[in-house]
Design brief:
The chain contains 13 helices and ten strands. The chain is α/β, with parallel strands linked by helices.
């Protein structure tokens, strides 16, 4: 009986230890399942970089449960940010300024690659020939900021052109194709889509420059899940390094397919030489210029405070 009792105590102890490890494992899995980043994007190059992490399974492999939702326009993305559908987003400094007016809990993680260009109907040979012409932009983001600076540089008064608000880049490409507008500000892959449709590229920002694109996160969520925020930034930087190694957009083809980019445009994109800076802190000078423009457009009011709008994330310097 004494031996049986000892065996019973030993088995009970083993069962307790086994149960403890089992519950620890269940708890960890549940935490991983419950804590996730849902990244809202529009259909452009910086967004495609965020999508690469999902398409190549790199978020999951780095123990981050992340999803990416692509929207047709900045307006649609902002709705998802406001209603809480997403807790991270790829956008730009002008739109962020507008968002921060009502969503102060959102903070900037760092820069993202990306660039704008100006496409026109092929009979327009230069920026100066745009006087009296209709140009499509999205006034809520950097596209209008880019156009205003370009016209000023080329000594064309903004008052001498007709600005048309067109939310979706896809709609701008179609409007160029059917001739209902004369020019449009676009970012890739839409810029290249317009080119293969016969449009002329009058100007394009440098691919490797800081052009105002940013990754932002909901600070209330990010502070509680700083490890996941670090992983998110790390995986995105990994995707940028992958692009730079091949000097091409080849790894983005799955994203381009999701964005309904034509085969001709994909072929053209894949033939480009590409090299981007890794994600880093936004320069104060770029931040202040974008906010000043946002205030002029009445997208934002109040003091401009760089420090309060940024969040510290590992490896983002």
């Amino acid at each position: 009986m004494k031996n049986l009792k000892k065996i019973g105590v030993f088995l009970a102890a083993c069962l307790l230890v086994f149960s403890t490890f089992s519950f620890v494992g269940i708890k960890n899995v549940s935490a991983a399942d419950d804590v996730a980043y849902t990244i809202g994007t529009t259909k452009d190059i910086p967004s495609a970089i965020a999508s690469m992490g999902k398409n190549l399974n790199r978020y999951t492999q780095n123990n981050l449960n992340a999803d990416v939702k692509a929207y047709d326009s900045t307006k649609d993305l902002n709705s998802a940010i406001t209603d809480g559908t997403v807790n991270a987003a790829v956008t730009d400094l002008v739109n962020y300024a507008a968002l921060s007016k009502k969503n102060s809990s959102w903070k900037i993680v760092g820069t993202m690659p990306g660039y704008f260009g100006l496409a026109s109907n092929k009979n327009i040979k230069s920026v100066k020939k745009l006087k009296g012409k209709t140009i499509a932009v999205d006034k809520s983001n950097m596209s209008y900021y880019y156009l205003k600076n370009l016209l000023k540089k080329k000594k064309v008064k903004l008052s001498k052109v007709h600005i048309k608000q067109v939310d979706s880049q896809a709609d701008r490409v179609n409007a160029l194709k059917d001739g209902s507008i004369d020019a449009a500000v676009l970012s890739d892959p839409s810029l290249t889509e317009a080119k293969v449709n016969g449009s002329k590229i009058l100007n394009q920002q440098k691919k490797g420059a800081d052009n105002g694109n940013v990754l932002i996160v909901n600070n209330d969520y990010a502070k509680k899940n700083i490890s996941n925020t670090n992983i998110l930034a790390s995986v995105i930087n990994e995707q940028i390094r992958t692009i730079n190694k091949t000097n091409s957009y080849m790894q983005m083809n799955n994203s381009f397919s999701e964005y309904n980019v034509s085969g001709k445009a994909v072929t053209k994109l894949n033939s480009m030489d590409v090299k981007f800076k890794k994600m880093h802190k936004v320069k104060k000078s770029n931040f202040k210029k974008a906010y000043k423009f946002a205030k002029q457009q009445k997208l934002y009011k109040g003091k401009i405070n760089y420090k309060k709008t940024t969040i510290k994330v590992r490896h983002i310097k």
